[in-house]
Amino acid sequence: MKGLCVVSQGFRSLVLVCPGLQKGLVRIEHYALKRRKFVMAHDSRIACFVLSQDGQLPATTSTKGTLVRVYNSVDGSLLQEVRRGVDKTKIYSLAFFLNAQWLAVSSDKGTVHMFGLKFNSGSPGSIRSQSPSEPPYSPFSFIRGKASPPIIRCCKRP
């Protein structure tokens, strides 16, 4: 994981996210704001991370691959934690969709987990105002109410 970073141009500044020097640590740089934040994201080493397009939301997972955490990039606060499973696995990728309303997580278990996120990316830390019975429109509407994560299961790799 050394040397890998993600950069986003948004939220009024250039934002860079990369692993810190200690295991589980994430470094967040807001260049225009001249602000640096270190977040102790996990107890284990960082395995995979992503930054939302607007630069407001870094999501991380560790080498255990069971938990994914989403943070506020400005103050480093934890916004949401989701569980991919209980078995250790290697996470291949994380991706935000639909202005960070959804987070996709793929792993070596041959699955893709889709998590609905509960905050509004336009205002880090704020909760969306829709009621649970009237979720926002999404191309994933067909799976609503069918299952708790994992929602989508892909074929095993050969």
UniProtKB/TrEMBL annotation:
Superkingdom to which the source organism belongs: Eukaryota
The answer to whether keyword Repeat applies is: yes
Pfam families in alphabetical order: PROPPIN
Would the keyword Secreted turn up in this protein's UniProt record? Answer: no
Q: Which UniProt keywords apply?
A: Repeat, WD repeat
InterPro entries of this UniProt entry?
PROPPIN, WD40/YVTN_repeat-like_dom_sf, WD40_repeat_dom_sf
Q: Which family does it belong to?
A: Belongs to the WD repeat PROPPIN family.
- The entry's protein name is Autophagy-related protein 18a
Species of provenance: Gossypium aridum (American cotton)
